[in-house]
Amino acid sequence: MSAPVRAFVALGGNLGDRRARLEAALAGLSTTPGVRVAAVSAAYENPPVGGPPQPPYWNAVAELRTTRSAHELHARLHTLEAEAGRVRAVKDGPRTLDLDLLAFGDEVVARPDLRVPHPRALERAFVLAPWADVAPDAVVGGATVLTHAARLRARAPAAFDALVRAALLAVPGVAAPRRPVVLGDAAALAAWRAAVAGTVGFVPTMGALHEGHAALARRARAECDATLVSIFVNPTQFGPNEDFARYPRTLEADLDLLARVGVDAVYAPSVEDLYPTGSSTRVEVAGPSGGYEGAARPGHFSGVATVVAKLLLRARPDRAYFGRKDAQQVAVVRRLHRDLDLPGRVVVAPTVRDVDGLALSSRNRYLSADERARALALPRALGAARAAAAAGERRVSALVGVAGSVLAQAPGVVPSYVDVVDPDAFAPLAELGEAPALMVATVKVGTTRLLDNEWMTVGDGTGPA
Ligand code: PAF
């Protein structure tokens, strides 16, 4: 028997009991011989596009494993539509059930009755948003679903903003992803913490979660008995003219993502819970806080250090996970953690990148499609410097020159700084030696600041954690 193929099906409908219809279709798929429903996204409520006045749709995407052919699966989708009473009378009219085969492994089908990948899937927010939920890593047309979603969001943000997460759908045989318990204040967190028997892995975040955060949470889950994520847009780390007010807040979507990762609890405190009226203490980490982001954003690292210290003291994790993308934050947190004897161990995980090399960041959603394309100069510049270092260049001035010339050729990309530093002290280096050396670079694209970094040398070859 041939190996099962990973296939994706879009489900939609706007007549009758929409949940019941979508769940019946999923049940119909899961009882089809040779088909297994591996996962399903949340259902999104979505205003109809075109056609007569009609109720909003619910849309979802299911991931299948199947030993059937694309043609057989397509035929089965038609049968399920017919069983749901679908009639194709009015173009763009209301529908009981609409099932589309989005992708079938890497197979390309171009027949009059079936085209795979689905020719319009990548132009529709109501397909890409649930698809990115369920399989952000799936590659279609040379890019991941996550990349397609980010690109379309940049071109058509309103189409994404119009989507509302309506429900998690039940599928026979698939354990419904259980949402993490939400802990709204310090007392709830303390009670949860006291009840955990084993080790706790903790991922502090500001929400607007992406695959980079999911990777940290997955690692926490793999390495610890219980996983806790905090979601708190920390006002003390934003300057007066920065993006605190417009920073994306997407709690519902974040909880769904964390449900799929299997996170146990989310600490989502209010500002008053973390900074009660009258609180006036700030933590200053001299040394690694000084230059680069610290110079460009006065007070930023004091805000980060203060909130991280408070979070670690409240959560008392065995391991706390941070992403390497914010390399200076990592240096500050490590210093803070050592100096204040904070609980647990700090674990640093590699930067997660999109297929085209752009480091994932919650702020990438501010970029227009054009800006996003320009922003690729940043990883390109770091890659060029890394190649020069690998070819034997030891002088930091020369490496900075290599990266700088790539950035200089990128229209609309304004470098703030490019340098090579000791990753712990965050002090500039003049030459590469035996010790780890990290190139750090920050650029502005439009109004968005983007940070990235790349190892020039990694010491003994394994690189610091
Ligand atoms: O990296 C972040 O998201 C934040 O700086 C952190 C560590 C959660 C503190 O607010």
Quick take:
By secondary structure, this protein is α/β, with parallel strands linked by helices. The chain is built from 15 helices and 19 strands. Helix 3 runs antiparallel to helix 4, helix 11 crosses helix 12 and helix 14 runs antiparallel to helix 15.
Second rung of CATH, namely the architecture of the largest domain:
3-Layer(aba) Sandwich
Number of helices: 15
Strand segment tally: 19
Quaternary form: single chain
- How helical, in percent, are the residues? 25-40%
Query: Which sheet architecture does the biggest sheet show?
Result: 6 strands, antiparallel
What class do helices, strands and sheet pairing give?
alpha/beta
- Give a list of the ligands: pantoate
Query: Taking Cα atoms only, what radius of gyration do you get, to the nearest Å?
Result: 24 Å
The tally of structural domains comes to: 3
**In the CATH scheme, what's the topology name of the largest domain?**
Rossmann fold
Low-pLDDT residue spans:
none
User: Gap between N and C termini, in Å?
Assistant: 43 Å
CATH class of the largest domain: Alpha Beta
Describe this structure in words.
With 465 residues, this protein is an alpha/beta fold. The chain has 3 domains: 164 residues, 7,8-Dihydro-6-hydroxymethylpterin-pyrophosphokinase HPPK (Alpha-Beta Plaits), CATH 3.30.70.560; 169 residues, Rossmann fold; 95 residues, Pantoate-beta-alanine ligase, C-terminal domain (Pantoate--beta-alanine Ligase, Chain: A,domain 2, 2-Layer Sandwich), CATH 3.30.1300. The strands form 5 sheets. Strands 1, 2, 3, 4, 5 and 10 form a 6-stranded antiparallel beta sheet that branches. A 6-stranded parallel beta sheet has the order 11-14-13-12-15-16, with helices on both faces. The protein has a 3-stranded antiparallel beta sheet with strand order 17-18-19. Strand 8 and strand 9 form a beta hairpin. The chain starts with a strand and ends in an 8-residue tail after the last strand. The model has no long low-confidence stretch (mean pLDDT 91). Bound molecules: pantoate. Pantoate binds next to strand 12 and helix 11.
